[in-house]
Amino acid sequence: MRPAGYLLFLALLPLVLNDFWLTLVATRALILGIIALSLTFLATYLGVVSFAQATLAGVAGYTIAYFGPNTVGVGFELPFLVSIPLALILSTITGGAIGLIARQSRGIYAIMITLAIGVAFFYFTRQNYALFNGWTGFSGIRAPEIAGVSLRDPAALYLLSLGTAALAMVLVAGFVRSPMGLSVQAVRDAPGRLLALGIPVTTPIVTAFAFSGFLAGSGGILNIWYQERISSFSVGLGPIIDILIVSVIGGLRHPSGAFVGAVVFVLLDTFAVDLIDRERFNTLIGAVLLLIVIVAPNGLQQLAKDGFGRLRQSNSNATE
Amino acid sequence: MITGMGGHMTLFLIVTLNGLTLAALYFLAASGFSLIFGLMRTVNMAHGALLLLGGYVGYSVVDTTGSWALGVLSGGLAAAFAGAIVQAGVLGWMQGDELRQTLASIAISIIMADLMLWYWGGLTYQVELPEALSGGQRLPVLGVGYANIRLALMVFALVTGLALWFLIQRTRLGAVIRAGVDDQDMLRALGFPINRIFILVFALGGLLAGMAGVIAASALSIAPGTDLQFLLSSLVVVIVGGMGSVGGAALGALLVGLAEQYGLAYAPTYGAVFTFAIMVVVLAVRPQGLLGRAEK
Amino acid sequence: MNTFKTAVSAIALFAVAGTASAADIKVGVISILEGAFAALGQDGIRGAELAVQEVGGKVDGSSIEVITMSSDASPDSAVNAARKLIEQDGVDLIVGPLSGSEGLALRDLSKSYPGVTFINGSSAAQDTTLRDSSENFFRFGGDGAQWMVGVGNYAYDELGYKSVAVIAEDYSFPYTQVLGFMAEFCSAGGKVPEKFWTPIGNKDYSSVVYSIPQDVDAIFVALGGADAVNFLTQYNQAGGDKPIIGGSITIDQSILDSKGPFKELLIGAPAGTPTVSDYDGEEWAAFAASYTDAFPDGFSAPSIFAHHYYMAAKAAMLALDEVDADLSNDQAAFRDALTDLTFVTPTGGMMRLDENRNGIVDNFVTEVFEREDGSLGNRVVKVIRDVDQLLGQDKETFLAAGPVSRDNPSCP
Which of residues 40-79 of B touch C (CB under 8 A)? Predict the structure, then answer.
């Protein structure tokens, strides 16, 4: 089986990569990929592009921070066996709530309402000290230890992220084949017909958003263990745009695109400063993004799959 | 400076006036965005960058020539030119693919912001006002000083709003634009040079954004980051008001300007949250915006 | 196995990143080179580079390489920048960051990298060193409260202000600045009836302008960059006439060098700051001259950021020299040298560290004046030497007052 082969190969990476490549590139890409997967899932199967995925990841991250060890003296400590499920439950519920609010919005309007939710959440975390510790946020967060091994250790965090990513892909594949998953895709294809048949569209939309909240939440938990801190900046416009860039670079046609996009994005974000004058690297990042949007409208994943013959065709389609 | 004398009522009126004048600025900033969004369904995320470009160019021109009007005009023209290039060179090639355009314009705004930072540096710029607009005067009834430029903002917004209304309702180009808002495909089928019209609309949107940039740089100030602030405010204004409608943009600007000033005066801690909460509530109840028409 | 790993990684690194350099000691400098603080961040880099240039890029035969890295003012980006500098570039020391929350983040990060020494740039949050300090995090400078020492007394005693309203941005650095001002002003007998906390990046202050009580004697403005410019402009336009008292980054040279008519309002305004661009001290004149020589395209005089990054990098160079550039044994000898280091700062004082590795510094009370060519500068009204982080108070009492916040301290 090919996926199993890939997985085995990826699981062996800690043997050949040093800590820098393993943690700052591979693990970071996996975590970003999981969060972007929650967006790619919504875009692929519900046909909705959400800008609130950083918010959902942030809800889970803040939960871990508030109910875990931190150095800012806000919140109280719960065992990880409690705080982790709690974080996932909260991000799932928040996802469902966003779905409920945005249930009537499609296309550009869905982008705008989710963007507004994301920005409102950002300002709220920045101003609220009781729950979010305001501008400064939480720091000194530690990942749990299992049998004396911290989950923040490079190999441990990498394998955990890899396992979570694989599980997330399996869950997405299972979800879209389930009856509810089929209703979600029916909403994408023909919302009008569903209504005419008397099938409510709210439940599939809310379920899809809740499921994406669960995915984003798992990425958010890994992310806070990786960063060991969270603040309003983690849910601001920067991360919101980053996640969108990752999804679009990879392509919104297939869930695995999220990880392709994440790898490209992390390499770019990490090494752009080495390729160009350090003070101008945003120009390079912008230029690469623009290039990908222009030459690979369906993302790199699709581009690699189609080869160059299809590329010429899709370009001529776009210029009509 | 008046709570000591005038009390709560005066403060409330002043804050309301501040909300109105801020709304005027937001309307000016959002009008170009609204025009482009309305006709072309393009969410131009580089709108803030165009506005900032106009502001910088306007500053440089005023600094050299000393003429404020010339600065406003050059700022507008520079942004109009940049907008036309953006549409002709990039966005026009992906017409109809909203998401791709959104992404491409984000990429353009990242590049533009970085290049402007390179050229103009990270300093805060403020455009020097002409004699007539600088300083302030005592307001009748309220009896407090008020900045001339803020009063002038309302005049600018009114003129711009009327000009836009006239352009859209009374001219041939306007008729085409209105037809475009309703049915792009029909317009194409009738043989209108839609690509050239789109470039023209983008230039017009850029002109409005650039002029608003110079005015914002005169009334407040501009610095790196100003692009994002005005992009966000324009998004809220246009989306809340309803797309492509001049009246909608005005209504959206009023709501946002007033919410921001009341927030700042009476609940500074969560002021910024209110603005976006309003947008969430409006869109949850009326997904097409307050004055927008429901899509098919 | 490890050799194999290194080899694979080195190949991968080579493929993507080009050649690694062969310098003996690598110093990573983290500053904000993007967004609104970019101009200030660039000046911080200049300061660090100046200190390295002064020793000719070499200490005891070991070459020094400076690697700069940008953050965007967010703690997350500062942490990512530091991780990349450490894990990819293999730096031995980090100089930076620029802003308060970034400093707290790097303080926490430093605990995960005991083999790297962190020397704070210009970030001035109080708790970076005061509470929960880190063994390998040093600050050769003060915090935001130290930077205001002298102003409260000057405002009360010399200027005769009895009641002052505060307008400041709503985050940790201005909280600390307000503490520094109020600690003196309140204990001298002054009152602060109202504090206005505005969101950072706010553009329109007009409604705040009209809410300022009529019966205060002055306004303490602890805003930075564009925020200060916007507030002062709008206050001016609305006919506001209360005297201004400035925070440390409200009336920095970079703001006096900004463009716009609002600056008239500032002439005569006092402020607290560790850096005075027009200071006539002998050491400062030499420092400013070598700054303008090295960086003709810099500001007209070193900013607070150039000054602090310079002191941080200079401390590193001096301590390296003392231990013959020996960083073995997890830099133990180097850190001891840093801990015991004393040197004359550009402001003429004697820099040394307290038990939390926080600087004991000089501070200035300044006022803005107009130079003959029409540009504005700060001139010194008063120098206060040996300002420590406890503001001269007893440690127990000082810590018992609790961390600064919107409501702490208070004297309405």
Answer: 59, 63
